[in-house]
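Sample 3 of the quickstart, ligand adenosine-5'-diphosphate:
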Amino acid sequence: MANFRKLDDLGDVKGKVVLLRVDLNLPMQDGAVTDDTRVRAAAPTIKELSLKGAKVLLLAHFGRPKGQRTSDQSLSLVLGAVEKVLEREVMFVPEIAGDIVKQAIGILGEGDVALLENTRFWPGEEKNDPELVKAIAANGDIYVNDAFSAAHRAHASTEGLAHVLPAYAGRSMQAELEALEKALGNPVKPVAAVVGGAKVSSKLDVLKHLVTQVDHLVIGGGMANTFLAARGVDVGKSLCEHDLTGTAEEIMDAADASGCTIHLPYEVVVSKEFAANPPSLRTTNVHEVAADEMILDVGPTAVEAVGDALKTCKTLVWNGPMGAFETVPFDAATVALAKIAAALTKEGSLVSVAGGGDTVAALHHAGVANDFSYISTAGGAFLEWMEGRELPGVKALEI
Ligand code: ADP
Ligand code: MG
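Result:
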């Protein structure tokens, strides 16, 4: 990763207008925000700029309104949540460019914060239309991007603005980039990757990239079944993409060629029905799965073996649960491995970075999310980064 400007590089911003891209795509239910994690992630940058006396204009998208104003996707719906986290009043401006924004800036005092409308109400946002970029930039002096989670999109507010205004990474963007750099960009070796989740098809590019980057690749979850099938294991009724066994073989060959050891479960937890604590639950060698059984988790001995491999590693990057963790007891392998990784991190022998919607939920479920070196909540952007792609919103910040 090349260098990028941080808030430390900002000169005097007193009275200047900062266009700050944040992630305010908050989950809502019945008109109420159910999780304000993303606001809390943006708060340090907002507060820092405000303390320095800037007029802070928040730019964000909300849902997928596809270039039209819709009342249920107005960012005014999250204003209350933003004010609550920031513990201050925030002005709502129902535009992102033009005279109304200009007038609002005239009313704002130094250090004040305003929330602009959902950028995706304007078709030019997702098209990265230079005219819209110019119109938004006309009201600002500086652009700060603190939304890593939107950095895989080259939109006006995530990419375009960085080319027309002095551009800086916010604190949350900076933390994410530094953590990712430590995990895959320039990691301390040996490096282990743990990849799990339901399907191989959704993570093919992740696996292909990782085998060229890491020393150990642990494959778990439903996707391990496709690899096991490729090795001739009968996986019974398990979730398995039989049409992808050829691809799985190619990935294993590529791993061989680049000296990456692939770890597949040799012991698994199976049952005949997918339910909590099913009567047919048993732990077995992977070669003894019956035709009417499903593999729903990695077995405890196999998890221990993965733990032993992790003990020889300095860096871990993790995406995807080891089993169907939402249903007990198929959370056991994910929880056990999470605890091992957390303990090694606490000891100081492992840098651990994890990401992915279900992965983050699983680590919280295991009670160890805070013990990892870094947890990314970026979803799609995190996965694209794991695929080794250049994220346009990050690239645009590089100097
Ligand atoms: P993330 O959101 O962290 O990227 P994924 O969405 O790829 O993770 O995968 C999570 C899903 O994979 C979970 O819903 C989990 O139940 C499912 N899963 C994991 N292992 C299995 C398995 N052996 N069989 C069926 N589903 C599984
Ligand atoms: Mg998921």
